[in-house]
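Homework help thread (please don't just give me the answer)

Our assignment gives two proteins as sequence + structure token strings and asks us to describe the second one. The first is just a warm-up. Here they are:
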Amino acid sequence: MKITYEQAEQVTRLASFALDPDESVHVLHPNQIVAFQGASSLREDSFMKLSGIYRKKRFVKTQIHGPVRFLLGLPEGYSLGTIEIQEDDDLLFDYRHVLFYTDGMTFHMHVQAVRNALMTRDLVKMRFQGPGTLGLLTAGPLYPVQLNPEQPLFVDMNCLVAYSKHVSLTPCVYGNTLASQHMNYQWEIKGSGTVLLQPCKPDSRLDEHMQNDSLLRRVLREVIPFGGIWIK
């Protein structure tokens, strides 16, 4: 699989995919597919499982088989980051960031501690196992940070995209009294390995899949033909 990026005014707006005959990609946000070049039968849409519907706020996912070329458009202010996932990788991801993954990968749910689930409003994280490629939609370029086992890392809760299941997470604030009273909650991360960050805090107004939308409106938009056009 080959991915190239097209920029306008030094900002990435499109990601171009070229798949060989034996390759396949699962796209979890089909509305971001802006162009498709290949046989119509090479695109297959299907309904997500209930857990995916809840976390992605989408009902339908798309699988695209090669040989084909297609373009994914990126919402304003967002970036596409790709990482290679190996069979023994232990990174836990916020499922809402996942834009696509290559066929053959598996994923499992990891239940968070009750305290962390209450802080993030998400009971589970997703662990992907490869080999394969994972595409992440983030607010700004994806940025890896190496942990220091001797010194904890403090990360804004809204900026943490993925972390190892072996690290410890503690919600906290830091600094003096004035700092702690005016900052967002932070994750105090202890352990070794790498965490993935988005450098900008997401703005829900930039893209509808980051917003809270009524269940009825989402059902009608996904189920009714051309519902995404007529139901805003």
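The one we have to describe:
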Amino acid sequence: MDPHLFTVDTDPVATAVAQAADRYATRNAASQKQFDLASRYMPGGNTRSVLFYAPFPLAMTRGEGCRLWDADGHVYVDFIAEFTAGIYGHSNPVIRRAIDGALDAGINLSGHNVLEARLASLICERFPSVDVVRFTNSGTEANLMAISAAKIHTGRSKIIVFDGGYHGGVLTFARGNTPVNVSHDFLIASYNDLDSVRALFAANPREIAAVVVEPMQGASGCIEAKVDFLRGLRELARQQGALLVFDEVMTSRLAPGGLQEKLGIHADLTTLGKYIGGGMSFGAFGGRADIMSQFDPRRVGATPHAGTFNNNVLTMAAGAAGLSQIYTADAALRLNALGDALRDRLNRICEENAAALRFIGLGSLMNLQPGTHEIRSTADILPAGNAVKDLFFFHMIENGVYLARRGFVVLSVPIGQEEIDRFVAAFTGFVHKYGHLFPA
């Protein structure tokens, strides 16, 4: 379907969104009170931009398994799972025991500890392209360090990234480069367009240190990279003497060894984060031993890499417990098969009701998108989609399903068939109630 053929009469959609927002505000007086209080001490009552939405965000008070309770006492099935970091759900007993044990042994040990090597070994064994690994406190830090490592290793200064890419709070390219980004010399190519990358290499001979890419762009709407595109990047980087960096902070959960293992395409450096820390703050970067050896402090002139909490015992303990006991290879296969089945069910509902909507993504990650055309990059996402996603969000909240305002849906380990069926029923109601506003 040509995206230009998809039109939405914005007045009915806007009216429906306004009505849904009014019902939301009426039902959530305690969350509004909490937001008003927070706004006295934080700009916009907020310290994490992605969590804000008008008229005010829900204030969550507790979680258990795959359920959340807000300040007004409403219970939700959690289908956002801390934007993929909460894969184990809330207070998983295995994770809890690991954290309790770390607390009992002392929180800040001021030195190497016995847990960090355990987590490092699990990661290296799990992800075939990671020979050795170093830890950080977030995916953002991991990507910053990987970029620096690539520049130092190659002796080059320029970095290719992609429109719609998100590699952390200071590495975001949803609308080109931004004022908050770090000041590396970025060259922005078009996602899923190998020719645009070739052109940048041709225009910058022997200057490009690395190509940094997400195998699926998560923050931009679960836009999947084509296999030929990623293979082309692998070969181009090799030919041009640049490094290929896969940002798998989000996609590492999509297969036992990350999405690159599933695709059979190995990067020179890989960045990780989110769930691998067991729900604690976490990031990691690793890859070829010859590149990572620059950080070996036994070497003269070693590249420094600091961070007070890089090896903090809570993250090390929770991460090791999660990878070894909960999100095993078999568990990863099961969870992503569950996600594939859910996405197929949701898309059949759209087709059967002639609604120009569909869910795109892979495995346990998916995003609602208006239209039925192919989405290869953010340029293919319809402008009318924001209002549709707003309406979807308010409808699902009203029906006890918590997800991201941008239509992002994430499965976690505690999600079972009961929760899947509840999501499907709520979405079916959404299509029946509003599907006429976006006909196929």
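TA reply:
I won't write it for you, but here's a hint about the kind of observation we're looking for: The mean pLDDT is 96.
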